[in-house]
Design brief:
The protein is an alpha/beta fold and 197 residues long. 44% of the residues lie in helices and 11% in strands. The strands form two sheets. A four-stranded parallel beta sheet has the order 4-3-5-6. Helix 1 packs across helix 2.
Length: 197
């Protein structure tokens, strides 16, 4: 491994979320020190993953098959679609084990600053899916950011004539959260979404 290859490795690692130049340098040195146990297996896994990964044409999830395992799973509820911004959000909901329906990954949020309009997101295919006779509910599980809320409002308007009920995730006090540590926006949302005890 030459100095240029090591620098390239460091530069590529520094592009990963959560890694700056110093962290990338430490990670690269660790990989090189554990070449047989880490570096070569990681390089091989990256190569295989790069060749095998597919984006699901139905929902936008990533998997090694198209359609993905979630879309073809007969045990899942076909009448409920949960809309998320990115695949990471889908994975977070799957980790919880609380949702047993299908998903739709938009691929981001509407953002004038970033030049992302409706044409850059998978909104058209969502509207098409939502009009299917078996779809009863579309859950908008988008972030509580300004862009997330703007996107949710836009998508809800587009789905108004689909025949499916459009719902949103509740926002407010997290489980185990103490009021003193919550921001004003979270407290406001919690008060507005209150329900009978």
């Amino acid at each position: 491994m030459t100095k240029n290859e090591i620098e390239t490795l460091i530069q590529l690692l520094a592009r990963l979320p959560g890694l700056g130049p110093r962290s990338a340098r430490r990670a690269a040195l660790h990989l090189i020190a554990k070449r047989e146990q880490l570096l070569l297996p990681l390089a091989s896994a990256l190569q295989r993953t790069g060749e095998a990964i597919r984006t699901c044409s139905r929902c936008g999830n990533i998997d090694t098959a198209d359609p993905c395992g979630i879309c073809v799973d007969a045990r899942r509820q076909p009448g409920v679609i949960c809309v998320v911004e990115q695949v990471g959000d889908l994975w977070a909901l799957e980790r919880s084990g609380a949702f047993k329906g299908r998903y739709h990954v938009l691929g981001g949020t509407l953002s004038a600053l970033d030049g992302r309009g409706p044409a850059q997101l998978r909104i058209g295919s969502l509207v098409e899916r939502a009009t299917a006779p078996e779809v009863e509910e579309v859950i908008l599980a988008l972030g509580a950011t300004v862009d997330g809320q703007t996107t949710a409002h836009y998508v809800a308007e587009r789905l108004a004539t689909s025949g499916a009920a459009v719902t949103r995730l509740a926002h407010g006090v997290p489980v185990g959260g103490e009021l003193d540590y919550l921001d004003d926006g979270t407290l406001t949302a919690a008060l507005k979404a209150r329900r009978p005890a």
